[in-house]
Amino acid sequence: MPALTLPPVRRWIAPPVTQENIDWANLTVIDLAKAKTPEGREEQVRLARDATHKQGFFYVVNHGMDQANVDRMFDIASTAFEEVDAEEKLRYEARIKQTGTYLGYKLQQYWHIANGVRDRIEHYNIPRDVNEREHPNAVRPFLPEIQKFIEFTHRDILNEVQKLLSLGLELPENVLPDLHPYDETNHSFWRFMLYHPRTQEEEEKTNNVWMKGHADHMSFTALWSQPVTALQIKDHDGQWRYVRHVPNALVINCGDTMEYITGGYYRSAVHRVVKPPKDQDGLRRLGLFYFHYTADQVPIQPLLNSPVVQREGVTKRIEGDVPTQEKWRKTRTAVYGVSELKKAEDGSEYEIVNGVRVTHHN
Questions:
Q1: Which residues of the chain form beta strands (DSSP E)?
Q2: The pLDDT of residue 332
Q3: pTM, two decimal places
Q4: What's the superkingdom here (predicted)?
């Protein structure tokens, strides 16, 4: 059988990792290869459960995608920015506030960060089914590869992780994957993201924060690890710590949807992005992300049939009218980074969305 010929793509050369002395977060590593044996599976269930309960962040390794394919996807991500001119990006600009989705380009300086400084981040967002919408000319040859990568991330990685987390709730392993089907009811999406360097004046006005501390509103976010050190988590002791680059690993963080579905047992992780260390100053930070939702019709309410939730009690729930995933995702997306925030006594900022207080950490 002849080898499949892939369309040519310009290489994205990943920068070297930092050599600075960094305060790294101590994150759990989930090994999907070990989860294939009964003994290993029991261990990985415990690790996944405890990591998501205590920190909401963990790595996933030995997932079955080789490094060459990951590198090529970074090459394709770069194409979405380098090979598409400003005029074409405008034609595919996302109508975020109007539609409650990110699909298309979010251009630079859309979000307000602090003191009049707006973001230097651009991303191109692609639906779970890449054929739902048109794409820029430079991206079109790669759509079959992007689709395969999306499906692999959804089915072979996140759904496998969710089997472990279902067992961690002492439920059948299919419970969480069944809430996140790979079908037309699910509006998970893929993102290519590029952070551009900022001026010294912008850094001073924002205290070097590129994106405020926040929790994602979906069930899980999967980030393919990359070498520019800028992502921080707010650790269990309240300190901000950096997330270390692990080659060919995914960094998974739990979001608000999963926190509410588990009554607060699985914790949505607060994280932010800051200026890289000195030896990476001025570099652009390219990322591959998958934002994972339940099916649109799923109500955002606790799984009260979980023995763990019953024992631990419900510590987080949405009071009043319980939104569906569709209402939750559209409302949270539409207001993020553009709504008027209120000041809290502890110095953080907040807004009320769907009756829920959503905090933004400075």
A1: 28-31, 57-61, 104-106, 112-114, 117-118, 121-127, 189-195, 209-214, 220-224, 231-234, 240-242, 250-254, 271-274, 285-292, 342-343, 349-353, 356-360
A2: 87
A3: 0.94
A4: Eukaryota
Query: Is the CATH number of domain 28-360 1.10.1660.10?
Result: no
Q: How many C-beta neighbours within 10 Å does residue 338 have?
A: 11
Cα-only R_g, the chain? 20
Instruction: Please give the share of the chain, as a percent, with pLDDT higher than 70.
Output: 95
Residue 240, Cβ density class (10 Å: 0-12 exposed, 13-18 middle, ≥19 buried): middle
Residue 273 DSSP SS3: strand
- CA distances for 93 relative to 96, 99, 159, 224, 245, angstroms: 9, 12, 31, 24, 31
Please report, for the chain, the start and end positions of each structural domain, with discontinuous segments joined by +.
28-360
Cα 186 from Cα 190, distance rounded (Å): 13
pLDDT above 90 (res 194): yes
Tokens at 251, concatenated? 């960094």
